[in-house]
Structures are given as structure tokens and as C-alpha cells.
């Protein structure tokens, strides 16, 4: 990037932001993406590289500084008590191990990780008072989301009453199982309606329905993976958090594994890269989370992502990939 002059970089940055904003609108608001995720990711990372080379060109409205997309009208707004963040992502094992090395250096000791599947759905927040489900929302732009409590109540995997009368906020992923997605698109096609591009967009479209009967008919499900203020329950690792969530009655993803060695991480990636087609839900990678919750507090977050976790995204599936050539003119 150093060989790009500031003037050229500035022009290119404007172009990339314009394209990325358009794609974000289609993906987050209209639930109808027009490009594959890896095309978006490539443009996004090019923007990061240019902004890293010329930090004076970073602006608050850059997609690199914001989570998600605009809030949909029609739903009540919900300001999250603590922002709902995205995840930093890498596309090679080298970058993944570099993340591990950096974390080890910052913390001063070797890290153990909760290695989880990266579910291709959309993030939700669920609030319980004395064990009763009282409010649920989308991530929205990370700071403000949409209140979709009534829609979430229709999802069978979301307990309306927990096994213990705790007052907690939990977060996780809402997704549409592959089978439900195939059935839904088949029905839509038969009715001459536009089909959804993938289960993720179908889940997002189904969850943000003003008519909750439509949401109820879509067979959505959830995996919960995050607990706010885990120390209140004497928990000190992410592995313990997952176990506790399950004991309270949440559906957690059972494939998670505790790993600390490089070769264990590699084996986990290889296993699920092969197994992903056999899973009943879509995944687009794996997530490494520092297992020790003290590390989360120690390293904190950027405006957009936690510094204690990283997503490794699988390379695009060649068969599914529609090769699109994007011609950038600077
Ligand atoms: P992301 O989906 O890459 O990763 C962050 C999200 O992963 C979290 O918010 C959470 O919802 C989810 N997640 C799934 N499993 C998880 C787990 N086990 N632990 C923690 N989190 C988990 O980031 P994003 O900010 O939601 O979206 C950006 C991505 O969306 C892009 O990288 C791109 O792939 C896609 N996108 C595509 C288009 C397009 O036009 N195709 C447009 C915009 C965004």
C-alpha cells in the first residue's frame, strides 16, 4: 500500500466506501445481497489497508468504523446497555496464529481458547428478569438495535422461562436451518416470489417481520454463546459460560472445543471445513475466543471488535461462488 500516493488512496477510499455502503444496505436492510461475502470482504480489507497506510483519511462514517447497518423503521429502537460488537476476521492460518502470538505477548502468557463455529446468522440479544424472557433485539448498528421481542417469542429454541430465576442478558446467533431454507425458497418460487440468497438473509428477513405469524412459520433457531457480567455467577472461562448457559436452558452449539495448541486449532478448522456441508446449519468459519475471561477485561475492545477474539473465515466454496469481476476505476 505504501506505493499508493495519498491522492490515489483518497480517491480509491471514496470509491470503496461507496460500494461497501451500497452492499451493506442490500445485505443488512434489504436482506438481498448482490455480491458474495468474499467479494465484500476483499473490498473491506482493501479499505482497511488503505486507511492503515493513511490514517488521516479515516472518517467516522467509514464502514471500518461501524458495526452493521441502519436501523429498520417499523420497530421500536433498543439502545444496547453494552454495544454489540462484530468480530475481527482473518482469512489465513498465518494471520490466525499471528493473532495468537500478539495476544500471548500482550497478556504475557500462552492462551487457551474456546474454539467455536461461526454460525452464519444474525446476532440477537435476549434479556431475562427473574428467569422470564422480557426483551429481545437485533444488533442493529451495534449501539441501537430493533426491539423484536414478539418475533423472538415465536422461536422454540428461545426459553421463555429459564431453569433458574436469574436476571441476565445473553447474546447469540439466530439462524435458519438449511432444510427450512430450502423449503421456504421452494414455496416462494412456486408462488412466484423472489427467493432468498442464503439462509442468513432468509433468517434476517424472517426475524424482522411486523407480522409475528410469518416469523413463527419460518422455523428459526438459535445458538447462544455470550453472557453479560459472567463474574456475577462465579464464572471465569468462556467454556464455563457455555456450560452455564446450557444449564439455564439455552441452546448452545455442542461442537465448541477448548484448545491451546496450534495443531489443535488447525485440526478443528480442517474438521469443520470438511464437515460443514453435513451440518444442518450454515457456518462461514470458526471463532477463537480467549478462554480466560480476565483476558477479555484486560485487552478490551476496539470501537468495532473485541481484541480477545478473532474469526477465521473459510475460503469461498468454489462450487457456490459466482465469479464476479469487479472493475475498479480510480
Ligand atoms: P461477521 O458476520 O463477519 O462476524 C461477526 C458476527 O459473527 C457476530 O456479530 C455474531 O453475530 C456472529 N457469530 C457467529 N458465530 C459466533 C460465535 N460463535 N461467537 C461470536 N460471534 C459469532 O461480521 P458482521 O459485522 O456481522 O458482518 C460483516 C460480514 O457480513 C462481512 O464480513 C461479510 O462477509 C458480510 N457482508 C456481506 C455483504 C454482501 O453484500 N455480501 C454486505 C455486508 C456484509
Automatic annotation (TrEMBL):
Residues at which NAD(+) binds: 37-41, 86-87, 116, 139, 173, 289, 313
Residues annotated as signal peptide: none
Residues of the active site: 118 (n6-amp-lysine intermediate)
Coiled-coil zones: none
Family of this protein: Belongs to the NAD-dependent DNA ligase family. LigA subfamily.
Function, as annotated: DNA ligase that catalyzes the formation of phosphodiester linkages between 5'-phosphoryl and 3'-hydroxyl groups in double-stranded DNA using NAD as a coenzyme and as the energy source for the reaction. It is essential for DNA replication and repair of damaged DNA.
The name this protein goes by in its record: DNA ligase
Organism: Liquorilactobacillus oeni DSM 19972
Gene: ligA
Shown residues in whole-protein numbering: 1 to 330 of 673
Amino acid at each position: 500500500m505504501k506505493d499508493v500516493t495519498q491522492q490515489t488512496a483518497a480517491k480509491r477510499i471514496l470509491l470503496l466506501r461507496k460500494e461497501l455502503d451500497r452492499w451493506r444496505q442490500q445485505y443488512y436492510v434489504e436482506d438481498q445481497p448482490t455480491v458474495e461475502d468474499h467479494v465484500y470482504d476483499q473490498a473491506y480489507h482493501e479499505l482497511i489497508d488503505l486507511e492503515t497506510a493513511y490514517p488521516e483519511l479515516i472518517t467516522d462514517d467509514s464502514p471500518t468504523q461501524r458495526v452493521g447497518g441502519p436501523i429498520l423503521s417499523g420497530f421500536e429502537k433498543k439502545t444496547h446497555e453494552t454495544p454489540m460488537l462484530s468480530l475481527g476476521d482473518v482469512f489465513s492460518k498465518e494471520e490466525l496464529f499471528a493473532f495468537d502470538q500478539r495476544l500471548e505477548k500482550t497478556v504475557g502468557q500462552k492462551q487457551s481458547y474456546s474454539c467455536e463455529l461461526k454460525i452464519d446468522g444474525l446476532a440477537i440479544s435476549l434479556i431475562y428478569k427473574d428467569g422470564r424472557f422480557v426483551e429481545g433485539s437485533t444488533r442493529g448498528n451495534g449501539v441501537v438495535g430493533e426491539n423484536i421481542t414478539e418475533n423472538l417469542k415465536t422461536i422454540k429454541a428461545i426459553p421463555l422461562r429459564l431453569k433458574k430465576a436469574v436476571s441476565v442478558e445473553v447474546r447469540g446467533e439466530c439462524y435458519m436451518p438449511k432444510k427450512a431454507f430450502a423449503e421456504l425458497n421452494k414455496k416462494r418460487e412456486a408462488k412466484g416470489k423472489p427467493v432468498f440468497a442464503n439462509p442468513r438473509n432468509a433468517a434476517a428477513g424472517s426475524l424482522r417481520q411486523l407480522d409475528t405469524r410469518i416469523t413463527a412459520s419460518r422455523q428459526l433457531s438459535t445458538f447462544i454463546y455470550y453472557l453479560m457480567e459472567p463474574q456475577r455467577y462465579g464464572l471465569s472461562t468462556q467454556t464455563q459460560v457455555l456450560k452455564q448457559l446450557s444449564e439455564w436452558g439455552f441452546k448452545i452449539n455442542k461442537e465448541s472445543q477448548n484448545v491451546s495448541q496450534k495443531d489443535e486449532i488447525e485440526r478443528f478448522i480442517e474438521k469443520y471445513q470438511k464437515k460443514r456441508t453435513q451440518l444442518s446449519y450454515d457456518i462461514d468459519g470458526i471463532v477463537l475466543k480467549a478462554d480466560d475471561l480476565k483476558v477479555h477485561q484486560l485487552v478490551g475492545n476496539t470501537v468495532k471488535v473485541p481484541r480477545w477474539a478473532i474469526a477465521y473465515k473459510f475460503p469461498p466454496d468454489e462450487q457456490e461462488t459466482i465469479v464476479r469481476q469487479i472493475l475498479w476505476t480510480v
